[in-house]
Design a protein that fits this description.
Blueprint lengths: L8 H7 L9 E9 L5 E5 L2 E5 L7 E9 L4 E10 L12 H4 L9 H19 L24 E9 L2 E7 L6 E3 L8 H16 L14 E8 L6 E7 L7 H11 L3 E8 L11 E7 L3 E5 L2 E5 L9 H15 L5 E6 L5 H6 L3 E8 L2 H13 L5 E5 L2 H10 L6 E4 L8 H10 L3 E6 L2 H13 L2 E9 L9 E8 L1
Parallel strand pairs: 3-5, 10-11, 15-16, 15-18, 16-17, 18-19
Antiparallel strand pairs: 1-2, 1-4, 2-3, 4-5, 6-7, 6-9, 7-8, 9-10, 11-12, 13-14, 19-21, 20-21
Helix pairs in contact: 3-11, 4-5, 9-10
């Protein structure tokens, strides 16, 4: 569900008195972008979301969904076009839904992403945003072919094997053959994998019937190393003629260093199941960020845009303000990327993650670099932090990089109980960031700096690094 931006209570109250009907055409002035990349306009103070509309445009919108709190519309006519509107270069941009902003000049998207964060803070916090500085968004020099991992649903269409993303608001798979934001190696591997599956007549999963074998092709490439890993997510454990399939992959895709299988027999939208099987090659691939190398297993979390990750982590390091004497907690640590980035400035780093495979990778990565001042544990920060404090180990800096749902409430309470001097919040969702910041603000922390980073060009997503200092 879209999350409408509420300018104030009065505007919302007035909007409820306006009745709109599906199919009705209304004039709209687009004021800004919403958190999903859609244009936001107002009709008699009722907020209206219009996918594809840009700030500054005057349009006629046709109502597609009429709600009490907000309305959705599609563009019927553009009366005044934005100077920032461009022709999307992707031929299936309007079908795929993977990107939301290819019709907007890149520099303009960076300004709008800064504004998306401002909107979230205005809506969810009591901070005076006129005094609170949000830095300009750090963008990419070349914002194309930047994603190091693809997770594409497999289906059959007209007898052909296709792999792609679900179309917007549907479970119809849109075939992706040359995605302009995916690394070219992942595009190539997916194209060849589709042909192999078709040539060998391998059973393809049918979501509606919950039958068939191959559900998802997951491909990850090491930008710096060139290593490639393929994970076949299957509905069942047994792969008929498995050896033939493996040999064909080795023959046609010699660049694949690691071939894995993940079994997910559940009726679910989640990609991975619990069991992962090694089919061929190495069990992990290696990637580098700067001078630091990482071993990545099939399910390990790793940032999807390595180029921007270096910039993001440099901002996190700057935010941590380490002098060499600090004890640091890397919550949601994954394979230990942020902790390793901070290693040379910290006295000790401790991290935790609920995925055991990630912790195993994190320990290997720390050992490989000769760091003996690292501790990684399986579990949650709210579980481990109180234990460590009870043992006399108290962190000076806590770094959090949570999923889109934000920090667990128990973790936020734990942080305010432990009272580290500084919290560095790496966020991928401005709304949950703002809510969590407001909680920490009411418990004695002040916001020092907010730095947006564009990790996913041409999408509405925006990551950021926020520094909170204990008052």
């Amino acid at each position: 569900m879209k999350q409408p931006y509420k300018r104030n209570t009065k505007a919302q109250g007035d909007s409820q008195s306006v009745e709109l009907n599906v199919g009705q055409k209304i004039p709209l002035s687009i004021k800004r972008l919403g958190i999903n990349g859609e244009g936001v306009g107002y009709f008699k103070r009722k907020v209206v979301f219009v996918p594809g509309a840009l700030p500054g445009e005057e349009i006629v919108g046709e109502v597609t969904k009429a709600g009490a709190r907000f309305t959705e519309a599609k563009i019927s006519k553009i009366r005044k076009k934005s100077k920032e509107r461009i022709e999307p270069p992707c031929p299936i941009y309007d079908q795929c839904g993977g990107c939301q902003l290819q019709h907007m000049e890149y520099q303009a998207t960076l300004v709008s992403k800064q504004d998306i964060i401002r909107q979230a803070f205005e809506r969810h916090t009591k901070l005076n945003m006129e005094k609170q500085v949000i830095q300009p968004t750090i963008g990419m020099e070349d914002p194309w072919y930047y994603r190091n991992k693809s997770q594409l649903q497999v289906a059959k269409k007209g007898g052909r094997v296709i792999a792609g993303l679900y179309a917007m608001n549907s479970h119809k798979v849109i075939d992706l053959s040359a995605c302009m934001v995916q690394h070219k190696a992942t595009n190539k591997v997916t194209r060849v994998m589709k042909q192999i599956l078709a040539d060998l007549n391998v059973s393809i999963y049918d979501e509606r019937k919950h039958k068939g074998l191959i559900r998802t092709i997951v491909t990850r490439v090491g930008f710096e190393t060139g290593h490639v890993q393929v994970v076949l997510v299957t509905n069942e454990k047994e792969i008929p003629r498995q050896n033939v399939l493996i040999e064909e992959i080795k023959k046609r895709l010699p660049e694949v260093n690691s071939l894995m299988q993940n079994i997910n027999g559940n009726k679910t939208s989640l990609i991975f199941g619990e069991e992962t099987v090694h089919l061929d090659g190495e069990e992990v691939i290696e990637e580098k960020l700067g001078d630091i190398s990482f071993e990545l297993s099939a399910r390990a979390f790793f940032q999807l845009n390595p180029t921007q990750t270096v910039k993001l982590y440099n901002e996190a390091k700057r935010a941590a303000k380490l002098t060499g004497t600090e004890k640091v907690v890397d919550a949601y640590c994954g394979v230990g990327t942020i902790g390793l980035w901070l290693a040379d400035g910290a006295e000790e780093v401790r991290g935790m993650d609920v995925i055991e495979a990630s912790i195993i990778d994190a320990r290997v990565n720390a050992d490989k670099h000769g760091y003996d001042h690292f501790t990684y544990e399986v579990g949650t920060a709210e579980e481990w932090l109180p234990k460590w404090v009870k043992e006399g180990w108290k962190p000076d800096v806590v770094v959090v990089d949570p999923p889109r749902t934000g920090c667990d409430e128990t973790l936020l309470r734990t942080i305010t109980d432990v009272k580290p001097k500084r919290v560095v919040y790496v966020s991928c969702n401005p709304s949950t960031l703002a809510k969590d910041v407001e909680y920490l603000r009411t418990k004695g922390y002040k916001v020092d700096n907010i730095q947006p980073v564009d990790m996913f060009p041409w999408t509405a997503q925006v990551e950021s690094v926020t520094v909170l200092e204990l008052k």
